[in-house]
Design a protein that fits this description.
- The chain is an all-alpha fold.
- About 65% of the residues lie in helices and about 0% in strands.
- The chain folds into three domains: about 140 residues, Leucine-rich Repeat Variant (Alpha Horseshoe); about 100 residues; about 70 residues, no CATH class.
- Strands 1-2 form a two-stranded antiparallel ribbon.
- The longest helix is centred in the last third of the chain and has 23 residues.
- It is globular, with a radius of gyration of 24 Å.
- Pfam families: IFRD, IFRD_C.
- Keywords: Developmental protein, Differentiation.
- This is Interferon-related developmental regulator 1.
- Interacts with PSIP1/LEDGF.
Length: about 425
């Protein structure tokens, strides 16, 4: 790239702070203070849009650093606020910028552009406009995913983007199968590790295999049942080999995919029978009770927690339901399909997930939440705890926690018990 043009210099921190200073204050409908001054929402919105237009222009800058900072700033804004009308007017410009950054950028810029493409489709939802975006970006993403000379990080980001955009956009079953085949060609290479004596670059590509597997699993949840049966027959006997992988995240991805495949198999056939059930449950039980000293405590704790749930799913057809709170609403995650979908979008939206669950029509449709619940400012104000009350509650909780810990740490507490 050439020299940056005469603009305010960018850094990663500046980019995120500059955007979030305009987004975070009103990204959450309830994020106002009771005693603060009234905010002119129209002026704030205009100010935000003015800055976003500037960031869109900067995605064409000669400096790679400036382009990447602009992409990251747009990502922060898109994840923290619904900007449907603003994006609708500029979707072709944004699509062209993303395409150019993925084709010509280096690894970090490609990752940022792929992340922005995901958020662009999340904002637009499923419709003709999103289909046009995917028609443009789909072939570019597939090319990077299959390009062995591209960086692993860029291929990983493009694999995730490909899966999410296809999930949101495609009504064309042929395109769905084509995308799944592209992802399958990537993660099935992980099956051959046990046979590989060389182990050439196998660990190097693990992150790519994980992303491809998770993206493929997401797309499997929207496949017709006859295709689901074919995929289960192909992969259910091969996936357990990934449970022996050295990488924790691969073991977890394989375990959760197995749980989801068993769930789908039992939905299609109530009498579904898996021949190697005893061997599989032994593997899962070993991972659920793993105490190997060479593994970090945090990794062991995470692994045991996940595989206890996977074992229950495979053996007992059980799922530990979770509740997600967002604003005044509650959503229960009561199956592996729903969990996979929720985890995927949470990874993309980050802290903006709750806001999008409240306001994004597409996500509400995916999770069957109905139309957005409209609450006026007065209702939100009555629901919110005042700053002073929150301070008193936190102080009381802190004192109680300190006392409890002090008792546990006081060596004199146990004196006399053994005499």
């Amino acid at each position: 790239g050439g020299q940056p043009r005469n603009v305010q210099p960018f850094s990663d921190e500046d980019a995120s702070i500059e955007t979030m200073s305009h987004c975070s204050g009103f990204s959450d409908p309830a994020s106002f203070t009771e005693d603060g001054p009234e905010v002119d929402e129209e002026a704030t919105q205009e100010d935000l849009e003015y800055k976003l237009k500037g960031f869109i222009d900067l995605t064409l800058d000669k400096s790679a650093k400036t382009r990447q900072a602009a992409l990251e700033s747009l990502k922060s804004a898109f994840s923290s606020k619904i900007l449907y009308e603003f994006i609708m007017e500029r979707r072709m410009t944004l699509t062209d910028s993303i395409e150019r950054c993925i084709k010509k950028g280096k690894s970090d810029e490609q990752c940022a552009a792929a992340g922005l493409a995901c958020l662009l489709c999340v904002q637009m939802g499923s419709g003709i406009e999103s289909e046009e975006i995917f028609k443009t970006l789909g072939p570019v993403l597939k090319k990077i995913v299959c390009d062995g000379t591209a960086s692993v990080q860029a291929r990983q980001a493009c694999a995730t983007c490909l899966g999410i955009c296809c999930f949101i956009v495609t009504d064309d079953i042929t395109e769905l199968y084509s995308t799944m085949e592209c992802l399958e060609n990537i993660f099935t290479k992980a099956y051959q590790r046990d046979r590989d004596t060389n182990g050439v670059s196998s660990t190097h590509n693990t992150v790519l295999h994980i992303s491809a597997l998770l993206a493929w699993t997401l797309l499997l949840t929207i496949c017709p049942m006859n295709e689901v049966k074919k995929k289960i027959e192909t992969h259910l006997h091969k996936l357990p080999s990934l449970l022996s992988c050295d990488d924790l995240n691969m073991r977890i991805a394989a375990g959760e995919t197995l749980a989801l495949l068993f769930e789908l198999a039992r939905e299609t056939d109530a009498d579904f029978f898996y021949e190697d059930m005893e061997l599989l449950t032994e593997k899962l039980r070993a991972l659920a009770t793993d105490g190997n000293k060479h593994r970090a405590k945090v990794d062991k704790r995470k692994q045991r927690s996940v595989f206890r749930d996977v074992l229950r799913a495979v053996e007992e057809r059980d799922f530990p339901a979770e509740m997600v709170k967002f604003g005044p609403e509650r959503m229960y995650i009561d199956c592996w399909v729903k969990k996979q979908t929720y985890d995927t979008f949470k990874e993309i939206l980050g802290s903006g997930m709750q806001y999008h669950l409240q306001s994004n029509d597409f996500l509400r449709n995916v999770f069957e939440l109905g139309p957005p619940v409209m609450l006026d400012a007065a209702t939100l104000k009555t629901m919110k705890i005042s700053r002073f009350e929150r301070h008193l509650y936190n102080s009381a909780a802190f004192k109680a926690r300190t006392k409890a810990r002090s008792k546990c740490r006081d060596k004199r507490a146990d004196v006399g018990e053994f005499f």
